[in-house]
Amino acid sequence: MAIRETIQIGHPALKRLNQEIVDFSAPELAQLILDLQDTMRATGLIGIASPQIGENFRVFVTEPRETDTRPADQADEFRVYVNPGIVFKSEEKVVIWEGCGSVLNAKLFGPVERPKVVEVEARDAKGGKFRFKADGILGRVIQHEQDHLDRSEFTEHVLDYRDLKVVEFYIKDEKNKPEHLEAQRITIKEFRKVE
User: Fold this and answer.
1) What are the tens digits of pLDDT across the range 57-95?
2) What does the longest C-alpha to C-alpha distance in the chain come to?
3) Could you tell me which of 49, 113, 149, 184 has the fewest CB atoms within 10 Å of its CB?
4) Catalytic residue (one of 145, 156, 168, 182)
5) Sheet holding 118-123, edge to edge
6) Which helix (H) or strand (E) holds 129?
7) Is-contact 46 98, C-beta < 8 A?
8) Distance between CA atoms of 168 and 138, rounded to whole angstroms?
9) Which domains does the chain have, with CATH numbers?
């Protein structure tokens, strides 16, 4: 395993320009993806972007895993997004409470409004181009990680800073509200190869 330190908010690596991947055969790319996967799983995250482990490349991964509170039909496989870009955002928006690996030390959560459905175009670990449309927590994590590649953290998008909560009060007050659970529900997972 290759668990890396998760860079915390305020670290300059989170604001540096992130470079596109050009060599998909480079062993460094395979190692970066493995490091992201291992770090994401070890820290209990459902997504993580390269700058969060101090690597300024346009790569992120997602994996909402089945848990005691997330049933199998609301989970998704491990996915790699290289040189991604959002190509569609629905007009309909939803509020979901977000946390982040880069505020793990502070354990902060806050309400963020984003498009309900998004479609991302990216390349996989071998360079194959694909498009992936998703909603719910999966669509949300894609937008959240894309923000990291564009040098933005979720704290910049919180609706009202007075609503920020540490994890204890997020779990107690917000996590299981019916409207929050409904906003997180995945109903769309559409994957297609482009090339």
Assistant:
1) 999 999 999 988 899 999 999 999 999 999 999 999 999
2) 47
3) 113
4) 145
5) 47-49, 59-62, 79-89, 118-123, 129-134, 189-193
6) strand 129-134
7) no
8) 23
9) 12-193 (3.90.45.10)
